[in-house]
Amino acid sequence: MSVLEEALWTEKYRPRTLNDVVNQKEIVERLKKFISEKNMPHLLFAGSPGTGKTTIALALVHDLFGENFRDYFLELNASDERGIDVIRNKVKDFARALPGKGVPFKVILLDEADNMTSDAQQALRRTMELFTSTTRFILACNYLSKVIEPIQSRTALFRFYPLKKEDVVARLEFIAKQEKVSYDQDGLDAIYDVTMGDMRKSINLLQASSAYGKVSVESVYKVLGLAKPKEILEMLNASLQGDFNTARSKLRELLVTYGLSGEDIIKQMHKELVGNNLLKIPEELRVIIADYLGEAEFRLVEGADDDIQLSAVIAKLAILGNKYDIGATK
């Protein structure tokens, strides 16, 4: 392992075997049967980033072939090598060579296979048929719909789902203790709230936040360059209570003191609007506000001024608050 990999906690604490994998228990159990039988079909791993697709593929070949698994394993990232020439050259050359004595087959991992061109996928389909006796393919993708149907029909599909909160937080606690990092529970919860089950992003965020001396809500949001949800909620509440000046002052703080972009603030406002039960407003009002936020984001993307557009949004919210007389909670 290189010095850089050792420095990256995502690599240092990457599970080496299927027994070490966090969550995805059903998938792990199915794959263990392939290991016990020393045989497996072509595999297709589909799911959002950070859910363990590449990690489980590496753990699978490690458990199949042992410490020297790299001798029988080829890993390619289809985002970088996505054309038909890669299939015709690298993949075919590796696939046609016979595996070593006592090794039933070799394994090729094509990561981010959904980024491969259509021609490359058609060539891959034929390659998978020709070299079944010597090679098994593992394809990992974020979007199953971008993988052509002939490849889907030739593989066993495994769907990966975002990890549960308790599993992510437990893993973060383990790493923090191993690295002797000071943390509080709210800080780890904040990491999950931001990453929503993406383990790789969670560990990276834990490592970055530890540079502040302690992993807390404040350090997590500093690393992300985002405002704390409480501050966004306070701005929304002030607006809806018709207190434009207070809301405007909080907005200026986010723009100037925190240095946030208008788009970041709009996205955080939207997140609080749709996911925060502390914002006590009627459903009808949420719909109207969501429409305001969508319109403002469109204008910002088109190049409008952040300050003016966001000031217009909170002004509209102040008018709505007075009209509905809702008295949003503080």
From TrEMBL:
Transmembrane segments: none annotated. The gene is rfcS. This is Replication factor C small subunit. ATP binds at G47, S48, P49, G50, T51, G52, K53, T54. It comes from Sulfuracidifex metallicus DSM 6482 = JCM 9184. NCBIfam families: PRK00440.1. GO terms for biological process: DNA repair; DNA-templated DNA replication. The keyword Transferase does not apply. Part of the RFC clamp loader complex which loads the PCNA sliding clamp onto DNA. Residues 39-166 form the AAA+ ATPase domain. Belongs to the activator 1 small subunits family. RfcS subfamily. One of its GO terms (molecular function) is DNA binding. Heteromultimer composed of small subunits (RfcS) and large subunits (RfcL). It comes from the Archaea. Keywords: ATP-binding, DNA replication, Nucleotide-binding.
